[in-house]
Amino acid sequence: MTTTVDRPTADPGSAPRRRRRLSDRAATTTGRGRVGARLATLVVACLAIFAFGQSSTPAIKYAVILSVVYAIAVLGNNAVLGLLGEMNLSSGVSMALGAYAFCYFANDGMGVVAAAVAAVALSTALAAIVAIPTTRLQGIFTALATFALAYAIPTLAIYMKEYTGGDEGTPAPFDFEIFGQLVSGSTTGMLVAALVVFAVLAAASLLMLNAAPGRAALMVGESELAGVTNGFNPRVIKVLVWTWAGFAGAVAGVLYALTVGFIGPTGFGFMLGVWILVGGVVAGARSAWGALLGGLFVGLVPVELQSYVPAEGTSIVFGVILLLALLAGGNGLAQWIERIGLLIKERTFGRKKVDA
Amino acid sequence: MELLQTSLILGVVVGIVYSLSGAGLVVIFRTSGYISFTQGDIAAVGLFVGLAAYNSGAGYVWTALLVIAVSTLVGGLVGALITVPLEKHGHLPAALSTIATALIISGLLNLTVGGDPRSFPEVSRSEALSILGVQMSWSDVAGVLVSASVFIGLGVFFSRSRMGVAMRAVNDNKLAGELLGVPDRRLKLVSWTVAGALSGLLGLFVAPILSLSTVSVNTLLVFGFCAIVIGGFDSIFGALVAGTAIGVMTNLTSTYLDPNLVPTVLWASMLLVLLVRPNGLFGRRKLVRV
Amino acid sequence: MSKKLVGLTVALTTLSTALAGCGGGGDSASGAGGDEIVIGAFSPLSGPAVSASSGIYATKAALDKVNDAGGIDGHKIKFIIKDDQFDPAKTPGVTRELVETDRVSMLCGPQGSVPFGAVKDYLAARKIPTIVNAGAPTLAGEYSYLVSSPFDGVGAMLAQFAVEDLDIDKVAIAYSDDALGTSARDGAVRILEADGLEPLGEIKYDITATDFSSQAIQLKATGADFVSIPAAQANVAGLVINAAEKIGYKPIWGLSYAAQNKTLVDVTKGAIDGRAYFATPYITEESETGAEYAATLAEYAPDVEVNSGATIAGYTIGELCVDVLTKAVEAADGEVPTSAQIQETLSSYTADNDYIQGIDWSDEPDGAAAAQILQLKDGKYVESKPFAPLP
C-alpha cells in the first residue's frame, strides 16, 4: 500500500519490473533460473579463489586447495540437503571410499588417471548400492543411519588393513603431472586441477538443476506425492541424487588423496561428514558457487582462525558461525550475497530506469 | 559356553546404559520430532561442576544431585534459548543447532577444564552380588535400579499424565497439545529439561567407567541413537530392549568376529531393522521429516 | 553481463585481495633475521585427541628453561606449536606453515604416528629434520629420528621379564590391530618362542570401543597369569583391566610408558597396585635426574602431570633437542645453525645420558635401545628392573 503512494503507478514498465523482481527473488531462494549469470558468477568465484590461492603463502594455498576439495564434497551433499531436504552425515564416507580406492589402485601399479577413474566408478557404484536401502528412510532415520555409517568408517578401515594400510594409512601418488604441472600438495597444478574439477561439477549441477532432473528432484523433495502425480518415481529420483552425492564425494576423495599425499583412518572420522553438511548449511545448499564458500569454511577457516583464537577454543567460533547462519534462516551466505547483489542492482539500475 | 554366558550377562549390564542414553533422545524427539546431538556435552557440563564440588568436599549424594541439577538447567536453557526458537525455520535447522551447541560447549570446556581424562566418583565399587561369576558392584546395582525406575517412570508419565499424553500428541499435531490444555512451547521446554536431567543421570553412570573427559559421554551417543532407532522412536520400552540387545550383540561381534567390526555391524543391523520395520521393533507411528 | 554480476565480481575480488593480504602478512619475519633459533612442532591442542597434548607442553618446558638460562650460546629458542587436531589432513597445512612461513630449522617433538606419516615425505623433500614423538618404526627415515623404544622391543622385554624375572610361563597378549599393537605382540611371541613357550591367547581389541567385556572374557578363558598389553594408552588399558577384574580375573599386567600415568591409577581405582609393570626407556620422577625434571616442570608447565610417561617422553625429547642444537651451534661456530647443519649433527648423534640411553642415530634413526621396568607400588612408579638393552 505504501508503495502505491511512494511511486506513481501509471508507469507502464512497473508491472513487468515487479514481476522481474519477484522472479529474481525466487531465483535466489531456489537456486534455479538465470543460468547464464550463475555460470558467470561461478567462473568469477573460481578465478577469485585462484587469484587468492596464488597470492598466498604456501600454507594458505594448501588450505585453499583443500577447501576446494571439500567444496566438491559440499556440492554433492548439497543435492541431498537442498533438493531432498535430507540430513546426510556420510559425505566423509564417500570421500574415504574414493581416496582409499584411488590409493589402492595407484599403489597396485595402475596409472594415476586410470586409478582415479576406477576409484570413482567403484565408489559411485557402492554409493548407489547403499543408497537403495538408505533412500527408503526419511528424515531423522536418514540422519542417524548415515551417522552410524560415518562412525564405522575408521574402524572398518583398520579391519580392512590389507587394502587400506590400517592405522598407518597409505601413501598417495605424489609425482602426478598434467601438461608438465605437478598435481600434488600445494602446487599450482593441484589448485588448478581442483578448481577445474569443481567448476565442471558445479556447472553440471547447475545445468541439471535447471533441466528436467532438477525439477524432478526438487518436486520429490518438496512433496513425494507431487512427484508421483507428475509421473516420477520418487525412489529412483532419490537414489540418483544420493548416487550423485556419492560420485562428487568420491571425486573429492581422489583429489584429497593427491593434495594430502597420504591417507589414514583418523582423517575420515564422523566429524568430516558433519563439517561438510555444516559447510553446505552455512554457505547455502542451493547455490553452486556457494559450495566454494562452504569449502573455505571447512578447509581454510580452521587454519586461519588459529592465528586469532587459541586453538582449544576454535570450535566455539565454528559453533557461533553455524548458529548465526541458522538464525539468519538457514538459507546460507551465498543467498545473502546474491540478495545484496540484487538490492544493489535494484537501487542503482532500477531507479535510473524510473527516472528516465 | 561360559564365554557365551558371561558375554550375555555383561552385554545386558552395559546395554542398560545404552538404553538410558537413548531415553533422553526419545523424550526430545517425542515433542519436537528431531534428535539432539548435544546431550553428551550438556552432561559433561554437569559432571565437571559436580566433580569440582566433590573435590572440595561434597559427598557423593550431593555431587550426584548437583550434576543432575546443572544438566537439567543447561538442557532447559539450550532448548529455551537456542533450539526451540529455531524450530520456526524447520526441523533441520533445529537439529543442526544442536551440533552448533555441542561445538560451543565442547570448546568452552576445552578452554576451561582441558582435555585430560579424570576419574569420577561412583556409588561404590564394593561387590554387592555375584551372578554366574560376574561381580556386580553397588554401582552396577544402582545403575540397573535407577534405569529401571526411569524407564517405568517415563512409561507411566507418557501414558497416564496429561502432560505426557500431550507430549506424545504435540509432535503429530500442534493443536493437539493445546486442546489438552498444555501449550506447545511449554511442552517442548519440559522435554528439553527432562532430557537434560536424563543426560546428567546417564553421565553419573558413564563417567566412573569411561573416566570423565569432554567427550566421554558423547562416545555413547551413537549407541543411544542405535537403541532408539532399533527400539522404535516412540517406545521407551523399545529403547530398553534394543539397548540391551545392542550390548549383547557388540559383545558377541567382538568375541566371535572382530572388535574392529563392531561399529559396522551396528550400522548394518540398524539399517536392516529400519528396512524390515521402518518404525523400529516397538514403534507404532509413522514418522516423517527431520 | 548484468550489473549484479559486476557488483559480485568486485565484491569477490576485494574479498580475495583482503584475504590474501591477511595470509601474506606473516612471512616477513624469518628465522635468519635475528639471533633466534626457530623450531616448531604440531600437536592436537584441540579436538577429540586433545588429551595427548601433554607431551608437547613438557617439550616446551625443557626449551623454556634453556631460554631463561640465556639460551644456547646466547641464541634464544623460538618454539612454535601448531594445532593439527590429530587430523592427518590438517597436519600438512600446519607443517607447511611452520616450514614455509615460520621458517623453522627443525621440528622438535611433533606428535602422532598418523599425522607425522602424512608429512614425513614432505619434510624429507624440504630437508627439515625432525625428532619425532611417536612410536611407529616406519616413521624413522633419513630426516626423521625416533626416541621412544620400538614396540617390538618393549613387548619382548615384558615377555622376558615375565618368564625370567617373575617366573611365569602362562602369558597372554592383548593387542590393538595397529602398528604399535602388532609389533608389541610380535616381540612378545618372539621371546616366548625362544623360550619354548607360546602365548595362551592373542586377544584383539579396538581402541575406540567403549566396552571391553568381550576381551576380558576371552583373556580370562586363557587362564594366563601375566597379560601383556604394552601398546595401550592409559584410558584403554584401564578399561580392559576394569572389565577383566569385574569378572574376577586378576592377572599381572604388562604395560608401557604409554599407560604410565594418573589416569590409569584413577580409572582402575588403584586395584592393580603392585600388579602392574611398565617397560619404559624414560626416567621416573623418583630418580636422581627426575628431581630436576620435576622442578622444571613445576616451574614452566605446572598444569601438566609430572609422573606421566607421555610427559616424561615429551620432556626428554626437549632435552634431546637442546643437546642437538647445542652441538649444531658449536658446529656453526656459534651462529644460528641451518637445517643442514642440524641434520648433520643429528645423523651422527648418540645419547647415553641421564635422560635416555641407547640412542645411536649414526647407525639407524631408531628409538632408544635400552629400557627399564617399573612397578606400580603405593601409587608410585618404582624401579623393578634397571635399564638394560632391549632383547
Automatic annotation (TrEMBL), chain B:
A Pfam family of this chain: BPD_transp_2
Transmembrane portions of the chain: 6-27, 34-54, 60-82, 94-115, 135-158, 189-210, 222-248, 260-277
Main location: membrane
Superkingdom of this protein's organism: Bacteria
Keyword annotations of the record: Amino-acid transport, Cell membrane, Membrane, Transmembrane, Transmembrane helix, Transport
Bilayer topology term: Multi-pass membrane protein
Keyword Transport (UniProt): yes
Subcellular location: Cell membrane
Tagged with keyword Cell membrane: yes
Family, similarity comment: Belongs to the binding-protein-dependent transport system permease family. LivHM subfamily.
PANTHER family reported in the protein's UniProt record: AMINO ACID ABC TRANSPORTER PERMEASE PROTEIN, BRANCHED-CHAIN AMINO ACID TRANSPORT SYSTEM PERMEASE PROTEIN LIVH
This protein's name: Branched-chain amino acid ABC transporter permease
Native species: Nocardioides hwasunensis
UniProt lineage: Bacteria, Bacillati, Actinomycetota, Actinomycetes, Propionibacteriales
TrEMBL record, chain C:
Position of the signal peptide: 1-20
Keywords of this entry: Signal
Signal among keywords: yes
Pfam families on file: Peripla_BP_6
Start and end residues of each Leucine-binding protein domain: 36-370
Keyword field contains Signal: yes
Gene3D superfamilies attached to this UniProt entry: 3.40.50.2300
Cited SUPFAM superfamilies: Periplasmic binding protein-like I
Classification via PANTHER family: BLR6548 PROTEIN
Family assignment from sequence similarity: Belongs to the leucine-binding protein family.
Protein name: ABC transporter substrate-binding protein
Species annotation: Nocardioides hwasunensis
